[in-house]
Amino acid sequence: MIYFQTKPDVVFEAILQEALVSEMTEVRMVADDAAIDSWEGLYPETSTFCGPYKAVRLMAQLLAAIRDASVYQLTDIHWLLLYECLRNFCATHNDLVEDDPQALRPIGTFQIGFLDGTAIVDIYFWDTDFLLRPIRGDWKNIECDVLREENIEVQTQDLSVDSIEDDVPLLEMVDEVAWIVPEPSAFFRAGSTQYPDTRG
């Protein structure tokens, strides 16, 4: 599990997993086609710090962390990548339901219409300072409990085609969490057609 500001509910966890799997597929296709302009267009901020192959490996780490019972603190590059990943996924999802406000698309076991990416960031992200500050490039010296690559369930073979792409930052395990714990139906309940549903 990722250490967000607010404890993720099952709907947000489903959104996270769907977003990461979908975006990993998209970024792999861009990388395989060597379409660097497409990569920079999809991930304008992340692409200034890493290439698409490393991004896929970072996404695999994020996906493994979400599926793990332990809680992990992200580095700035992980936050930045997750931010752009969710932004892209929400935009694609919303484009598909835009023509019909009542249209719902499956995400995990849920049927969801509009995804409010801004509200998701406001609820779950601690801040967006990672958009403003330089991201540390020396990831090899981080000393922490880590989610190591052998625990990543997603196959990432053939992704480190360049030795520069090989160093991936590790995630720190959080022993004591202090997040906001919302009511189970705070953001999605019977009859909801958007996420989060913060209407009274």
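The above is record 1. Record 2 follows with the same two-line structure.
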Amino acid sequence: MEVDDESKPGDVDECKVDCRQQIPKIMKQHGFFVPYAVEVVRFEPTAQMAIEDGSKICSPYHDELPGDCKDGAVCGSKDGSIRMRDACRHYRFGTLGGFVTDDSGNLFGLTCAHVVDSPCPKHEVYKCEGEIYRRFATSSPKMTFHFGENPSFALVDFAAVQVENGAYKSCNQYIKDEDGLHWSWTVYEGKHSNLVGKRVYKYGAYSGLTRGLIACPDLELPCSDLPCAQTDMYLIMIDNLPDALPQSPNDPDVLPQGPFSKKGDSGSLVCFQHVLSNEQLIRNSEQKTITVLSMIQCGEMEVYGKSSSQSLSFMLATGLRCLFKKSNVNLTCVCPPQQESC
């Protein structure tokens, strides 16, 4: 039985008395009598799991100061939130990939560096909630990594933003499956040879849940060697599912699926689909673990001037190693207590 109780701690006895009066009436009404005990459990109502993988985030451009009011476009508030009517002129947008912790238990959110990088420490990062953007983390030059710059994107474009202590309770530290259920997760560090054609999915801030397959697991582009990569094969090309495309360009009843990722999806984590039969689900009572392959850093690619359905991503394991080499901060994924580790 749940009772909304906004009374003071000294009024616990009154709450118990009220419950003891109501419970017999309910049992008599339904003709159901069982022994019972009354206990009062108190907890503070909090906004749980408001920030999760796939959340829309933003941060000011390098030359913008958080909370500045320019032409009424950006206005700060005491609770760390801002209202923006012309945000695109002042802020960069992207996707929160997921959460990791360092060896001291500090919580970090993963995304692309071009979304949050700044030459200044404590650069503010916001979670977008409609027209209200609330600060939940800060970025620093130490925790951002770029490699392989070209006019459109970096080959490895990785950042970990440190979550503020007051925002911990609002962060869901697990990864969503295709049904929107959250599970523990691990980082893929296996071979590339058997990845072609594997089905994957991702949650992006702009395109939401999309499914695709691995078109090329060992893409190599002309650039210098990446010192922190264990292999030269760290770029993964993701494409649409072929069965989502129209059978004929003149078929009006079959519409093509959009690209696997769009602008604003930078930072999305690409995960392997977890296919189980009904028999496996019934026999296996243990929770599954999601395997994360890579991070999207370039959606809506253009090939020879034409838009492509393919998206470029880099191995998440490579991003974590590169950031560790730069910062000497060891980041690991979070798992539920009393379950297999990440």
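Residues 176-316 form a domain with the Thrombin, subunit H fold (CATH 2.40.10).
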